[in-house]
Amino acid sequence: MVEKFVLSADERATVAALVDELISDSETWDPLGRADRAASLAQELPTRLRRFLSEVKVAESDVTVLSNLPVDDDLAPTPVGWDAAAKTGAGSREEVVLLLCGSAIGEPFGWSNQQDGRLIHDVVPAPGMERSLTSASSSAGLSLHTEDVFHPCRGDYVSLFCLRNPDRIGTTYARVDTLSLSAALRDLLSSDSFTFHPDDSHVGVTLNAIDGTDERERRGPSESGAVLFGPGDRPYFRFDIDFMEADGAAATDAMRVVQRELSEHAESVVLSPGDAVFIDNYRVVHGREPFTPRYDGTDRWLKRVNLTRDLRRIYTANAARSRIVVA
After folding, report:
1. Nearest Cα residue to 238 out of 258, 217, 218
2. Are 112 and 317 in contact (CB under 8 A)?
3. What mean pLDDT, rounded, does the chain reach?
4. How many Å apart are CA 150 and CA 145, to the nearest integer?
């Protein structure tokens, strides 16, 4: 079940006022400083909203949707690619909405080699990327996956804030608790028989297909470990069929079983403007339905942020007090 919260008109106005305050506080454009300030201002979000998000965090709810968040009535046309959004600052006010709400459940962070090290990402289709294995794709769906499956600093939550979605394109997801796995298969998936690689959104850590084949040469940091881990009665989970491999035939077969189970148990949530979804990246894999982009300013447009429960884990990995993971 998706946990849902609809802001009242007064609560929406309170969020909008906090957005104004956070923007006015920033005399210079400093995304990391703004994130620090957002953590403080998030304590002033409507009480009912803060209590709801606190309960979501404690319960480790799988998928959570907030509705009726403020979106600018004069929203810019959907940018053609994330880099266009970065250059123009399109949707910058909505970035602050997501930053504030996200800070009530976790700590926002980014990656040095994703979208030029930006903290808040734009999820929009891009010409030439229609069938890529990144969020810039469109005509090819995104398979169900754990965000940044390869890295120990991957987010506890992935949050997507909808600015525009006229074609009602669904965000797909599957929960680990819905999988029907035998005890023997769970044991195998709990062993360190799998290697997880960086995905193609991490610029400079993978090479494209070699000589026109489907073979991929990996480079950059990878991590070996288990698919299932953590509490035995309610395990955590990581999986990305496109960016992992198994050690041996039995583990390879286990990957195929999991992929089939995920496909059979996939669900979908359709976000409307003003909706933000929080996906537990340790309990849920997510993806996206395919669609045909128009590149006319009306395409689907989301803002995305990764959230961690423990910012010091990132500080330790960086050996520096920075929210941007050096990957």
Report:
1. 258
2. no
3. 92
4. 11
Q: What is the pTM of this model?
A: 0.94
Burial (CB < 10 A; 0-12, 13-18, 19+), residue 174, is buried
pLDDT single digits (tens) 72-125: 999 999 999 999 999 999 999 999 999 999 999 999 999 999 999 999 999 999
pLDDT of residue 219: 52
Split at pLDDT 50, 70, 90, the class of 12 is very high
Confidence of residue 209 (pLDDT cuts 50, 70, 90): very low
Banded pLDDT at 4 (limits 50, 70, 90): very high
Q: Are strands 228-229 and 107-111 parallel, antiparallel or unpaired?
A: unpaired
**Rounded Cα gap, residues 143 and 156, in angstroms:** 19
Rounded Cα gap, residues 306 and 269, in angstroms: 19
Q: Are 105 and 57 in contact (CB under 8 A)?
A: yes
Ramachandran angles phi, psi of 206, nearest 5°: -135, 155
Output the six-digit token pair for 230: 């953590």
How far is 89 from 104, CA to CA, in rounded Å? 24
| Distances 280 to 51, 153, 308 between C-alpha atoms, Å | 18, 14, 10
Give the tokens for residue 124: 């929009």
Residue 25's pLDDT is what?
A: 83
Amino acid at 298: T
